[in-house]
## 1
Amino acid sequence: MQGRPFRGRFGAVLAILILAACALLVDRLTPAEAPVSGRARISDGDSFHLGDERIRLLGIDAPELDQICADAGGQSWTCGRTARDKLVALVAGKAPLCQPDGHDRFGRILATCSVNGRDLGAQMVEAGLAISSDDYGGEETDARNAKRGLWVGTFDSPRAWRDRHGREAETNPGWDWLPRF
């Protein structure tokens, strides 16, 4: 028994605690990714390019570029293009500062970005032109209660819209007018 300290339930629990402590230590010692900044080329309401880097705003999901929504009277409006135009206006020639937090399955940098100290994701959700998928629940509640943007009428969640329209809808950067080679 002396040479086998990880035997039985106690040993299993001890081994799990040691592994968890090691994982926590590695996480704490891994340096955060360096912030990125630059001139933005807006793709849609929640993604853009900074130079060669593709950025996806963390914590929000905006309508896809070709997505259509309905207003209170049932009239269609181009909510995807409106969301893109809002992000263009928020950036307005300034250089967003983005703190990366990993990558998505398409290789885009997931980041929290700001312009002049104002969080772009929070502003998109406050305007009602993106839904919160993470940390912007208060902003979403405010937009919903004030019936701003998407909340003025009816809409499919961007995820549901993408599911119905296929993967191309999520990866199309809005350059569909260019010839394909």
## 2
Amino acid sequence: MIRGSIRAGFDKGEVDAVAYVVSKETLEKAKALGRASAEAIGLGDFRAGLEETAMLYEPGTKPSRVILSGVGGASDWPDLVERLRVGVGAAVREARKRKGIKKLGVIVLEELVEKAAAEAGKSTDWVIEQLMVAADMANYAYALKGKGDAPHVLAEIGVEPGTEAALQNALGIAEGVRVARDIGNAPPAMMNPERLEAYAREIAEKLGLGITVLHRGELENLGMGGILAVGQGSEVEPRLIILEYNGGGDTVAVVGKAVTFDAGGLDLKPPQAMLEMKYDKCGGAAAIGTVVAAARLKLPYRVVALVPAVENLPSGKSYKPLDVIKMYNGLTVEVGNTDAEGRLILADALAYAAEKYKPKFMVDFATLTGAAVVALGNHAAALFSNNEELLRSVEKASRLAGEPAWPMPLWPVYEKQLESKVADTNNVGGRPAGAITAAKFLEKFVGDTPWAHLDIAGTAWVQEKGPWKPYYPGGATGWGVRTVIELLRK
């Protein structure tokens, strides 16, 4: 993949363009940047609107290319940190339109950084770090072109104000997000369960992480009927990939759904619905990316990622509607729909994580239900939890990270929709409240462990209606990595 770098600060004599991130409140100050800037602002051609950019040329200055990037005002979006991320991301995307720009300097007024820090209750270093991560995310590209032009990626982005501490944190978080996006964007044949295991092993060797992979024999011995059933229609064996960073302290488990391609099984999806199903592994991608970022930041936790990896394909060996599966925790599940497979593989992994690792809490990521997209669109993940304190902590962390999650109910009344006449539970509860009944199903497998479930079906990749943020150029977003890192650092 094409890679650029981020750095703290820059020399104006060494960059090809300078971008100034401007709010409506600081618009007048931007007139001092030069004649072209003053004229564009004076004529109303640049008003510092959210995501608005202007490419200008200031004669006699070095560099002569100047990008103005707006962050709007509080009425556009109340979260200044997020508006600054958007402004930085928009500036990077504007620069990427011109192949003559290899190196970009980004300047954010210190007063905006200080105000954002005060509003978020964080340090200015934290704000700077967030802006650096946004710059790196906007500079991301995934391409496998053998001919023709590859996407233009900036070789270097310098951010001012910048500090070494902010840069080191930003590099760690950005790497975790990139890993998640690379896994999510990879074509199904290049990132099937076998190749995902190989990639996880490369990461473990590179970062000195622990790795265990449970294959068919171990899964059978452990009674992981959910993972085995979903994966049995494919020629590629299912597996449970466990990646571990041990920074000491409490154990935290992150569980991610990795259906590397989801055709729906025997309840086959229509062809158009399959075109985005390489992204059904984005939950597992986020879990792996979280461990990478935690290791890079040397967080004082033991962070364990459990990633059940399968292909859900139709064949003569596929599991069938009305089959009854026995899960790792002993519950029997009637299969109401083979396309509700993610909850089956997650259930085994959650139950195993709770029993084996006894974590302080668990978080799972899953592109689980279309119902979550219907409810919240592509701008927020659906958040469920069996623990009020954890629910509020994840909600706050998601907002700070720029990955908003909206709390949804887990009331006992929804349990009735999952009733089965032949098994302990059904894997589906009908169309009404589909995201909630999926979460209620998962809740049966976590025991007393505090647990949060993030249904990222609407946010894991850039779909028709969003996410709208300019630091998502397209494809997988890596949604969830920044939230859990923020949760662990609170």
## 3
Amino acid sequence: MPTIVHEFAWPDRLVVGTVGRPGSREFYLQARTKARIVTVALEKEQSALLAQKIDEVLDELKSTEGNPFRVPDSTPVELVDNDPLEQPLDTQFRTGAMGLGWDPTTAEIVIEAYAMAEVNDVDPDEFGSEPIEVEPSEALFVRIPVGTARAFAKRTREVVGEGRPTCPLCGYPMNPEGHVCPQPGAL
């Protein structure tokens, strides 16, 4: 069965947002153009890594000698989006693999999110030691200009950072009801 691809070129809105309380939040990537909205679930770590890698790509472009593209250092104020996710949340899929790229022909950051592959009823003896390639059932491809990419990365870092505080000794998240630190000698 071919992969169902949800494509957005310069969407009206692209955000990472959460539902739930710190410690049990669920993360979502949401793209919207007019009335069309696609929401995919992803992990906190995927969100954080996506923001980090977008900033790295933009910073590298900015520092590349002879780069003909204007890359902002910070988020353009007109692109700041602090609104919550659009409701109701109708999640298309849970993200497995992700991809990130730069298209120099259009000066766009390209974000790819692929549905987590599910392998059911596979007899491992049938395939031996060969890896099994499974096509994802769905994918989300989003193309955004550099200013929007900078704003997206900033918001995503802020959303990720709104979680539980980290323990200064071990770096693990601390729950409101307490924290058992694995560091020797910690109280």
## 4
Amino acid sequence: RFPRARSLANYWGLTPGCRNSGESNQRLGRITKAGSNTARWLLAQVAYQALRKDRLLREWYKRIKRRRGSGVARGAVMRKLATT
């Protein structure tokens, strides 16, 4: 059903929104939240458990959390899990 892993993340609404007019600087916004709320909630629960178990994923999460905040980092983990 999905040709690429990114397509699944897009279907669930985990990709950043983009409202550009023209070809100039690409400015990405918040995640689109276009998909199912339940699917995103379940993926968030899986992300919490994965962060508890996987040391490398937890370190990656902490680096993003320091730089961008916990909500953005949690969304990044959810998208990473959806695309793997």
